[in-house]
Specification:
The protein is mainly alpha-helical and about 260 residues long.
Length: about 260
């Protein structure tokens, strides 16, 4: 390190190390890096999540046929046979069912990779919050998918779609039927991530708590739009259920923010 004397007799430092303190962002170990380095790291971590998702689909595929039979017997009259209208329809239906199971483990992994990505810039209490989010994300996904499986799907299939069974013979496409099932299961699992996302946004300073409280009307408008887009149920039972749950989860998120 080079040094030079100032006019008042003190010594000033120059050289590479002279600017180290300027890179410190307030958190020990946090240093400033070029934007491209951050983007490459984020890309690599998202790639890990995508690879894990694909691996989960592959591992679940051998068990997907049995899973489809369980779903069919659970929600649909066993007298109605599965109908495939294209050579690959059976395979695509199985892949969609595998996607739901792989998604259940991929979402917590996504939170973990985000934690690793932002870890250097987090304070200890923020790191502890992130580590609590990971298992909570998995539990919330399972709980949301369970709501769809045990409440919404039985209403859709048993009490609505087959209500006119005496008047017409139902012939259900395997892919379309399983697509509705997987959309609702994955949709409800993702919907139940809302409390974590809201709390995360407030904790990271992305949005203010008071702003969320004042913009309730806008939030509920977005909830209604998301509900209509998320569920494929023509009876609107799933959409109404999703909207109600999103509203409850949003208010629960505000309560969590006040408590923590």
């Amino acid at each position: 390190m080079n040094s030079q004397h100032t006019g008042n007799g003190t010594t000033a430092s120059t050289g590479k190390n002279s600017g180290i303190n300027s890179y410190t962002a307030g958190v020990p170990g946090d240093t400033e890096e070029p934007l491209m380095v951050h983007l490459l790291e984020l890309r690599n971590r998202l790639a890990i999540v995508l690879i894990w998702l694909c691996l989960g689909i592959i591992l679940a595929f051998p068990f997907s046929a049995k899973g489809m039979l369980i779903v069919w017997k659970e929600f649909i009259n066993t007298d109605i046979y599965m109908t495939a209208y294209s050579p690959l329809e059976w395979t695509f239906a199985r892949l969609k069912l595998c996607f739901v199971s792989a998604l259940a483990t991929s979402i917590p992994l996504l939170f973990y990779q985000l934690y690793r990505f932002t870890g250097k810039g987090l304070y200890p209490h923020e790191k502890r919050f992130f580590l609590k989010v990971i298992p909570a994300s998995f539990l919330l996904f399972v709980f949301g998918a369970s709501i769809g499986y045990f409440i919404v799907l039985p209403i859709m299939f048993k009490y609505i779609l087959f209500y006119s069974g005496d008047m017409a013979t139902a012939q259900l496409s395997v892919q379309d039927t399983l697509s509705a099932v997987t959309t609702i299961l994955s949709g409800f699992g993702i919907v139940f991530q809302l409390p974590l996302l809201v709390v995360f946004a407030v904790k990271m300073g992305l949005v203010e708590y008071q702003t969320l409280k004042k913009q309730r009307v806008l939030v509920y408008s977005v909830i209604m739009a998301v509900s209509l887009f998320l569920s494929p149920d023509p009876t609107f039972i799933a959409q109404i259920t999703v909207a109600f749950l999103l509203g409850v989860l949003f208010e629960f998120s505000l309560l969590l923010i006040r408590l923590f």
